[in-house]
Amino acid sequence: xxxxxxxxxxxxxxxxxxxxxxxxxxxxxxxxxxxxxxxxxxxxxxxxxxxxxxxxxxxxxxxxxxxxxxxxxxxxxxxxxxxxxxxxxxxxxxxxxxxxxxxxxxxxxxxxxxxxxxxxxxxxxxxxxxxxxxxxxxxxxxxxxxxxxxxxxxxxxxxxxxxxxxxxxxxxxxxxxxxxxxxxxxxxxxxxxxxxxxxxxxxxxxxxxxxxxxxxxxxxxxxxxxxxxxxxxxxxxxxxxxxxxxxxxxxxxxxxxxxxxxxxxxxxxxxxxxxxxxxxxxxxxxxxxxxxxxxxxxxxxxxxxxxxxxxxxxxxxxxxxxxxxxxxxxxxxxxxxxxxxxxxxxxxxxxxxxxxxx
Length: 358
Known about the structure:
Order of helices and strands: HEHEHEEEEHHHHEHHEHHH
Number of helices: 12
CATH architecture of the largest domain: 2-Layer Sandwich
Distance between the termini: 76 Å
CATH topology of the largest domain: Beta Polymerase, domain 2
CATH superfamily of the largest domain: Beta Polymerase, domain 2
């Protein structure tokens, strides 16, 4: 697009062209530095973007208000970066990292989150104008949540880009949508905080041994696994053939324990105590005539669950259901269940009286 620029603006534009390779280099370097810093701090973001203002965009800016700038250095967004976070509180964490990395021009930086009136909704973002040693131009870093980013993009496309005055009805609709997204942002953050608090309480319950007070769910079960509750049984089973234990995820057994009507971690703990002898007898029978020197860490919980099913009279149908949960429904699960039932029928634990507790 042809622009009507005076000599002063053309001089600024030429300075831009002369330094374009450096701008691109610095944009990449700043992005990499920022990403490394956030990764080290454990701050998870959805994206870090960088860009160098295009020549056409700069020319348009100069055409509108070129007299405002004495030189290219007065334009603070030739290099721009944008950090998109998942949660609103992480915007401030990113801002703190940026503050430690670069010199902030506080006079020209703006927190748009604080500019809106209490009864209005709109663009929320934190903009820092920064500088760094070895680079003679300032650059802008924008920080906002993924929902704020989505609204900004939609508002830009429907409003700013259209080039026409937006009727009041549509502006009100956009404002309502901004309010909804702001509410969703706050709810995500609230849920995140409450879940973190729940995890801490669960960990405290498990650590204190109050397992009956810990409902059996994914969070409590994860904490329970950190106590290595199946380790003793697995080591006893491994000792049959002096085998090594290969560690695998035991999370799939959560659903099996729930199928066995375990409601709390205390129920799982009691199942382990009540069925460990049966689980060991099953393993001994299965391994006695083999030379297995590696076993999976899932052997213990699998045999515990089989022993519980059989002691409660669940038979091959119950064992098949367990394998269906672990491996997906399959006819082969039924055949495996029948084989295990045949192996177990004469083992001592099958003749013991079931406690019938959960």
